[in-house]
Each structure stands twice: as structure tokens, then as C-alpha cells.
Amino acid sequence: GRCCSSLLHAGPDASRRAGTRRVLHAARQAAGHPGEVLDLLLLKVATMSDKVRNVLFICTGNSARSIMAEGLMNHLGRGRFKAYSAGSHPAGEIRPLALQTLRQWHIPTDGFSSKSWDEFAVPGAPQMDFVFTVCDKAAGELCPLWPGQPMTAHWGVADPAAVEGTPEQRQRAYMDAALVLKRRIELMLALPLQTLAGMSLQREIERIGKTGAA
Fold first, then answer.
1. Scanning 124, 151, 152, 178, which has the fewest C-beta atoms within 10 Å of its C-beta?
2. Cβ(187)–Cβ(206) under 8 Å?
3. Active-site residue 135, yes or no?
């Protein structure tokens, strides 16, 4: 079979891993530890770095805020995160202004659907690493038991669909909500997930949920 060292050559970020291997080699020479042990440690770090983490955004209707969050995370975090969205009481259709807002950032709008959060609590569903509620009503409801015990936090955002007024005012409300979500996603992408864990990570994602637009 392939040894641990050869596994490190596969996949993206080969140059980064090569640099890490050089540091590891120097440490191994200095410390006199068996190379295999440190190679296994390096493989674990590389695997953690390359892991694509699943994120579920939840709203009541899964028609606007959670849809925009899904699109933004998949766009900004591609290769590192895979986002999904769902609703506690799905509307069954997506609000056109939510899709229009994503298109303004040249984010593809095909493939979205308004669906129940129950789809992510059944055997065989993608196992989530994080679950974020983006509306207060969904945050207060009894949610399903998520497989894998993901970390959860409330990232509440004002409902743009509740805003009445001119078409420009309504579009502005959607953009305002999207900007808040975008800022929070950018903050999450900046977290050192390889080193943060447990309560430290929980505190960070909760703190991010209190952040407004930049």
C-alpha cells in the first residue's frame, strides 16, 4: 500500500504540504523521533485542513435568508465548505428577490429548492458539521436530532420579505440581509478551524452570529 508520506503528495495544496514536510523533516532530525509517528501526525493535520465541512442554514420558510446564506457560503467557501439550507415549515418556493440578490454577486442561482429540515435528519443524509438558524422563529422551535451532533448557533437576520414599500426599498432589504450573512460567512472562513475546537469554536460561531454587516 501507499505509505503516509506518499499520501501527502495527492490532492490540492501540494506546495504547502511540501513546505510542511520540510519543517517536519527538520523537527524529526532534531528530536530523533521515529519518522512514521510524525508522518502520521502530519497526515492528520493535512486531512483536517482539507476536510470539506458541511453547513446547514435554517429558516422557517427556506425561501429567502437561508437560501442566500447557502449560495453565499458555497460561493465564498468553495473547496472548504459545502452549504445546504432547509426550513422548519418550508414555503415550497423561493422568493425571486433572494435569487436576484445572489445574481448581483454573480452567484449561480440554479439548484436551489425550498425543503424541510427533516430531510437532513434521516439516515443517509449529509452529516453536518455546523447548523445555523438565520431567523428567530426557527431558532425557537424544537429542531430535529441532527446526525453527527453538529455545532449549532443562531445567526439571526431581519426578514427582508417582511419589508413593504417600493421595489427599490424591498430590494434594499434583501441586499442588507445578504450583506449581514456575507460578513458572518467571511468571519467564519477566517477562523483557524484546524486549531479551534470544542467550547472555543462554539464561542466564536456564537460571537459571529451577533455581528452586523461590515
1. 124
2. no
3. yes
Q: Ramachandran region of residue 154, left (φ > 0), alpha (ψ -120 to 50) or beta? A: beta
**Looking at residue 50, what is its pLDDT?**
67
Catalytic residue among 135, 157, 185, 188: 135
Q: Look at residue 132 and give its three-state secondary structure.
A: strand
C-alpha cell recorded at residue 90: 418550508
Q: Which of 46, 59, 128, 185 is catalytic?
A: 59
Cβ(188)–Cβ(205) below 8 Å: yes
Q: Which of 38, 76, 121, 143 is catalytic?
A: 143
Closest of 107, 113, 121, 106 to residue 90, by C-alpha: 113
Decide: 123 and 186 in contact? Cβ < 8 Å: no
| Catalytic (active site) residue 59 | yes
Mean pLDDT, to the nearest integer, of 126-149?
84
Whether 3 is catalytic: no
Q: What is the DSSP string of 61-128?
A: SSSSHHHHHHHHHHHHSTTTEEEEEEESS--SS--HHHHHHHHHTT---TT----BGGGGSSTTSPPP
* Total-model pTM: 0.75
